[in-house]
Design goal:
Blueprint (H helix, E strand, L loop, with lengths): L6 H4 L10 H9 L3 H12 L4 H7 L1 H4 L4 H30 L5 H9 L3 H8 L9 H7 L3 H8 L9 H6 L11 H17 L2 H14 L1 E6 L12 E5 L5 H12 L3 E6 L4 H10 L8 H48 L9 E5 L6 E6 L5 E7 L8 H15 L23 H21 L3 E6 L6 H10 L3 E3 L7 H13 L5 E6 L6 H12 L3 E5 L11 H19 L5 E6 L2 E6 L6
Parallel strand pairs: 7-9, 7-10, 8-9
Antiparallel strand pairs: 1-2, 1-3, 4-5, 5-6, 11-12
Length: 573
């Protein structure tokens, strides 16, 4: 827990100075300390939040993903604070200015902003008006003025005359006083308590104001003369104002909201006496706020507003998406979903008619493990146990499901690759270049082969056929010898280990530059082609017919242009 004392606790053992992060998380989130400790251990091991939420319920006490994400975010924040505390203490100690009181204040700071406020006076500064004044020897005069004595030995102007030094750039008493006030203004700005007070008052009473930046109509017209309390402004209006400012239609400021801020500063730094220095110090306070404090606090307030607004927008999206994702996939039916995977296996999930996940499993029916018999038993067992009666339709761009000639998404992915080939051709032809274009497909070369043929590529490399790199290089060289000005090699991702060797040997053979590009997830997006749309419609019709006939545990495919159905990985169910 954060330390609450100061001097009395300074001499305790070193471990008592540190925040007990796990205890803090337990208190803030209403969890058990041991529960938090085990969860933090899982996070530190590199486990993702979805993985922990789904597969480590016995360790976390069945914490859901929302609580886990809150814990994760807060954990990182607390650790960052602790790290920053140690950094700041080390930096101040290096200046030999770290006192027990200062160390205690740093340990007690609850936010990164508070830690940085404490460090501000010790932070190396660029050249400022105050630093120039200090170089001119005016700091003693600033201390004399800021003391606000009721009486001085002489008028302040006469006292300031003693600091006139034309060699240092102080030509007169007025310049000496001005420099001294610059020092006072910066010292006030660097005061951590002062900044915290101004920040709190501005957040509580400040007003966000937006005005028109240009005399023209826009979608931001409603914000051309707009103001609202910082404390109450809705997140969507914050984001709208930000967009309007970014696009140049709005000028946005945060006003303090009355005289509360200045009254606070006057009470904090002005002495209640009739000092001759009273008005001078008051002018330094005014300058400090207007020139140094207000711009910084305004940035902090607006950044905080933006962060909260963005989090709110994400929360709305999250809630809407949750309702969508947690709805039953098919009304009144228990569904088994497949997430294809090779190295990590195919993930199975059984979802009941209410949308609740009631069972999960992982099977390895493909290379490299090829545990086909075991996979059949697992799938058959789930189908029998839960009475799964929904028909599967193959939807994967890779077209790597052996029972069907084509899968939904394959044609769309091929069209995306062909489009890329045609566009790349325009560029590489003008520069006499060679392009190795990597496409998806894992261990299946269907996307690469079909796209290469349709796009007119010079060569295609697929996992199913052994590759002679020297032959590829010779083929590309022969093309250039015959007058070609470019070449495209389509490479299936299952053969990416050849990329470096291909690049080197083709470059050596042709004397031309070889570039490499991977389309990656671009192949998974876009509007479906007509062929994919028609195929999906045909398969859906067959699936509905099977369900109406009481069939279950089957998948639909296409073979020889005809739609058919078969069992799922098993001979009998």
């Amino acid at each position: 827990m954060p330390r609450r004392g100061c001097k009395d606790e300074y001499n305790k053992k070193e471990d008592t100075k540190m925040i007990d992060i796990e205890a803090t998380l337990a208190e803030e989130l209403g969890l058990g300390v041991e529960q938090v400790r085990k969860t933090v251990a899982l996070i530190d091991e590199g486990n993702t939040i979805p993985f922990i939420a789904r597969y480590r319920k016995e360790v976390t006490g069945s914490l859901d993903d929302t609580v886990l994400r809150d814990l994760f975010d807060r954990l990182n924040y607390l650790r960052n604070i602790e790290k920053r505390r140690e950094e700041v203490k080390a930096l101040i100690a290096a200046q030999e200015k770290l006192t027990p009181e200062l160390e205690c204040a740093i340990d007690s700071a609850k936010t990164l902003t508070e830690v940085d406020d404490i460090y501000r006076p010790f932070r190396p500064k660029r050249k400022t008006r105050a630093s120039v004044a200090r170089e001119r020897g005016l700091e003693p005069l600033s201390e004399l003025i800021f003391a606000q004595n009721e009486k001085y030995d002489a008028p302040i102007a006469e006292l300031a005359a003693a600091y006139i030094n034309e060699e240092k750039g102080v030509a007169g008493a007025d310049e000496a006083i001005a420099g001294a006030l610059d020092i006072i203004a910066e010292n006030i700005s660097d005061n951590a308590d002062c900044r915290k007070g101004v920040r709190t008052l501005t957040a509580e009473h400040g007003i966000l104001v937006s005005k028109a930046a240009k005399d023209e109509d826009s979608v931001y017209a409603q914000y051309y003369d707009f103001s609202e309390r910082v404390k109450r402004i809705a997140g969507h209006r914050v984001l709208a104002v930000n967009r309007g400012e970014k696009e140049g239609f709005l000028k946005v400021t945060v006003e303090p909201g009355g005289d509360l801020v200045m009254s606070y500063l006057y009470r904090k730094f002005l002495k209640d006496n009739a000092s001759p220095a009273h008005e001078l110090v008051k002018s330094a306070i005014d300058d400090s706020y207007a020139r140094l404090i207000a711009p910084s606090v305004e940035r902090e307030i607006r950044n905080d507003l933006t962060d909260r607004a963005s989090e709110g927008a994400l929360k709305v999206f999250e809630d809407n998406l949750r309702h969508l994702l947690m709805s039953p996939p098919l009304r009144g039916k228990t569904v088994m979903g497949f997430d294809p995977g090779y190295r990590t296996g195919c993930k199975l999930a059984v979802v009941d008619r209410t949308g609740k996940v009631i069972d999960t499993a992982v099977i390895y029916p493909t290379k490299p493990q090829e545990r086909i018999a075991e996979s059949r038993r697992v799938v058959a067992g789930l189908i029998r146990k839960y009475g799964i009666n929904v028909i599967g339709i193959p939807g994967t761009i890779d077209n790597d499901m052996g029972y069907t000639d084509s899968t939904i998404g394959f044609d769309t992915a091929c069209n995306t690759v062909v489009d890329a080939i045609l566009k790349l051709r325009d560029t590489i032809t003008s520069h006499d270049r060679i392009m190795i274009l990597e496409v998806m497909g894992r261990e299946c070369g269907n996307i690469a082969l079909n796209s290469a043929v349709a796009g007119g590529a010079e060569y295609v490399i697929v996992p199913e056929v052994p590759t002679d790199v020297d032959e590829v290089a010779a083929t590309i060289k022969d093309g250039f010898d015959r007058g070609k000005s470019s070449a495209i090699i389509v490479l299936a991702e299952g053969k990416t280990e050849l990329t470096d060797e291909l690049t080197q040997k083709i470059s050596d053979a042709t004397g031309r530059r070889v570039n490499h590009m991977a389309l990656k997830w671009m192949q998974r997006g876009g509007n479906p082609t007509v062929e994919d749309r028609v195929l999906a419609a045909k398969m859906a019709c067959r699936a509905v017919e099977l369900i109406e006939c009481g069939q279950s545990g089957r998948v639909v495919g296409i073979r020889g242009g005809e739609i058919f159905d078969t069992t799922v990985l098993i001979k009998t169910v």
